[in-house]
Design goal:
The structure is a homodimer of 418-residue chains. Chain A is α/β, with parallel strands linked by helices and 418 residues long. Chain A is built from 15 helices and 16 strands.
Chain lengths: 418, 418
Amino acid sequence: MSVNEIILNMAQAARAAAREVGRCSGQVKDQVLTDIAALLKEESGFLYAENAKDLETAREKGLSPAMIDRLTIKESTIESMAQGLLEVAAMPDPIGSMVRMWQRPNGLSVGKMRIPLGVVCMIYESRPNVTIDAAGLCLKAGNAVVLRGGSEAIHSNKALGQVIAKALAKNGLPETVVQLVPVTDREAVKELLKQEEYIDLVIPRGGEGLIRFVVANSSIPVLKHYKGVCHAYVDQGADLDMAVHICQNSKVQRPGVCNALETLLVHEAEAQAFLPKVAAVLQNDGVEFRGCPRTCEILKNAVPAREEDWPAEFLDLILAVKVVKDMDEAMDHIAKYGSLHTETIITNDYGHAKRFCREVDASAVMVNASTRFNDGGQLGLGAEIGISTSKLHAFGPMGVEELTATKFVVEGQGQVRS
Amino acid sequence: MSVNEIILNMAQAARAAAREVGRCSGQVKDQVLTDIAALLKEESGFLYAENAKDLETAREKGLSPAMIDRLTIKESTIESMAQGLLEVAAMPDPIGSMVRMWQRPNGLSVGKMRIPLGVVCMIYESRPNVTIDAAGLCLKAGNAVVLRGGSEAIHSNKALGQVIAKALAKNGLPETVVQLVPVTDREAVKELLKQEEYIDLVIPRGGEGLIRFVVANSSIPVLKHYKGVCHAYVDQGADLDMAVHICQNSKVQRPGVCNALETLLVHEAEAQAFLPKVAAVLQNDGVEFRGCPRTCEILKNAVPAREEDWPAEFLDLILAVKVVKDMDEAMDHIAKYGSLHTETIITNDYGHAKRFCREVDASAVMVNASTRFNDGGQLGLGAEIGISTSKLHAFGPMGVEELTATKFVVEGQGQVRS
């Protein structure tokens, strides 16, 4: 079979499977999730053996130790995948629940019922645990899913796919509810992105290059985020110790992730007191400061910032710093350079907190809290399948609910329209 | 200026205006809506004169009387546009409201705040009242909007655009909150559909050809519906008089619209009693029956249905009719030929009503009610900007709320992530 035929067959099978998983009970779906969790442990020997093949190729190709670490399935990886599945199983079933219900003057009851999206396609790189996380969330939401992982994890992903298929079959669901694409070249991705008749949503997860490729080639709606250029604004009158603590956590706790702090904005009335304070702590953690001219006057060891530092997602121990004359200038800066991801204000001013929340355009706006909280688990959504920085359908962390839609249900006693 | 420059300038101006209208108060937005309603009446002489130019061109081109009627601005058109605006103004402001709020164990308050989408682009044909309806709904939801109406209504639309601009300016908002594209060829549409940096959502409204053109050429998310192939299923044991009444209303009340009935499915146990009953009433209304072989045995004057009648959106006094052996066969038929628009069951069986609601895939599923109720006004959403048959972001009638998104708002007292 050609790649085109393989992909078309998978997409059609997914559409057919979507109808079955869409109407099956929450009990069955939760049993599948629980069974996958158990099978991951029972079949760990098989998983380690298949994973070893990927690790060998990775070493031959000279992948970095960090990459190889992300690729490795160890006992703790299996433990955390299984734990995640059990947490998703423990959540209430969203499907079939009525979001709200109201009466019309003519006696009709009108409500919105939560329903699956249908067929979801995940396109991702490297980490094999995404295979389990994505399958679990999509299944809970009653969707069929087509998974296309990266070539470097193909053996691991296929092995995980077999474990999932076994759990589906055991519970009387078609194995095509979760399918793993066996071809890993970009042509296969392009073919997937043409199946708008059978696939309802594409979620790419990986580097900006992968995401831009998917957006450029897809005729199917895409939920995506490109990058996180997150700001903290330290307001006049803010608690400066709290501000240092939040900046340190936002910047240093895990600098390589999308909700890490990239730019610090400081009210001019606090700059003289605050900048040396925050620099002492963060420079001790190895952070390089790239400052505006006023910052560099105060912090003699700061590097002068260039224009390209303001829109930069450093993903590293680098912080751009700018002194602003007021909150409006800070919000203008964020509107110009922000990426709609996460923005935080450190303030004691009630009116400023309200205005910042209302007016700043980002998937999560924080007051006196670390940017690192923009995460499905931290915000209480349970597991997440990604963070959307586009506003259509979902904006921010996407959990189970974001993998559903609603339909109108209208219950009458013979009403007609006049 | 070239078309490209005109469109780029408009898109950039809309993005800038979106920030201003997005943060302005509900009071100001409602005043703009009220002022437009008043100005429509005050400037009716100007509107009739500009509309007359379009009508003259339409007559020269030999447009049908039905088309010319849709194009005409009369006193009742102005009255109904003004009334619609006042109804939207009377609705609560969705922007800034918290959808819900919860506490995290670490004391963070997390909520979802309703926000505007940003910039909406409407692409539509013929009826000038869409200009006012779309502008009103987008404005209420805090969005900037770029309107591109058809060439046949260009003078009317420009005149309406001037009225809107006057009301915006009077209330201190930029006139660029609502912009009318002055060029009406398809090249201008193609240019609009490339502005993904500045436009967040495209809503096409018109024939299937226009919608397919927009989908094929857009790099911006599109909310659309292609067609409505709506079914009624008459279950075993249904109240047959009610079923006749519902079928008549669904099919005959306004046959040319997307929520009109196109196919009737009848349980075999009721066919002998029901089909002559429904045929007597609907054939009296001029409806042609196209039946499956079993239907044609019972109704001697029915035309035998061909395969292409099952997926057809007749938009006319034609009804496809099929006898089925049970509800499962009816649901299979709907899954195969339906368009995810509106489906209704006429039944007295509680379990069947529940299963039909749960399992049928459509933006609105009805029990013992006319398909004609799938409409924003009828379902209690207020005015609608269209009906979506795709599940991403909105599914079914789209009112003000469907023109918004939500962002996370996180209020802390210095929390950091551990």
